[in-house]
Amino acid sequence: MIPSDAYDVWLLDLDGTLVDAEPAYRREVFDRVGDRLGREFSTYEREVLWHGLGGSRDAQLRAWGLDPGAFWDAFHAVEDPVVRAEATYLHEDAAFVADLDRPVGLVTHCAEFLAGPVLDHLDIRDWFDVVVCCDENTGYKPDPRPLHLALDDLDARDHAGVYVGDGASDIDAAANAGLDSVHVERHDPGKRGQCVLGDYRITSFDDLRAPAGGD
C-alpha cells in the first residue's frame, strides 16, 4: 500500500489511467482512420495503439509500415471532441484523486481539443491544479519536459513527487523527471510484450487509500 500523503505533489496520466473510451467508439475511430489510410486495423492493433501497450506508438506504427505523421493526422481528423467525451467513462477507483489534499497535475498525451471536453463532460476538471497536454512544443513522454512544466506551474519542482500512469512511457517519463512512479496495470500483461517496472505497481487506485502507518 502507498499512503496518499507519501508525496507532496501528484501528477497523473489521463487515458487508460483515470478514464477510457468505450470499445465501440475505439473501433469506429480506427475504422475511419483505416478508410483514410487504405488499411484495416485488427482488434489487436487497435488495442496496442490506443493503450500504447507496446511502448512507443510511433515506433510501433513504423514497425507495421505506417507513417506516424499520416496516422496521427488521420486520427485527429476523424475524432469529434463531443462524441469522444460522451463515449469516455471514468474508472470507478479514480475517485481517489478527488480526495488528494495536495497539489495535483494532469500530464496527458491526449490532445488539448479532446482532453478539455472529456474533463468537462466527466466533471473532473477541478481535480487538477494544472493540466499539460503534450504536443510538439511541450514534448512527448518519456521526455520529462511535460512533467517538468506541470511541476513548475505548481511551484513544486523540488518537492517529493510521483507520476501515475498505465504505460511504459509514463514510467520512463517519471524516471527521467526525477519522480517516483506508480504503474496502474489495467490490461493483461501478456498483451504488452514487455514488463513495465515502476516504483509501485497496482491494479486499482484502491491500493493507494491506505492511511500513513496503516497495514
TrEMBL record:
Keywords: Kinase, Transferase. GO terms for biological process: DNA repair. Gene3D superfamilies: HAD superfamily/HAD-like. GO terms for molecular function: kinase activity; phosphoglycolate phosphatase activity. The keyword rRNA-binding does not apply. SUPFAM superfamilies: HAD-like. The keyword Glycoprotein does not apply. It comes from the Archaea. It holds the Pfam family Hydrolase. Belongs to the HAD-like hydrolase superfamily. This is 3-phosphoglycerate kinase.
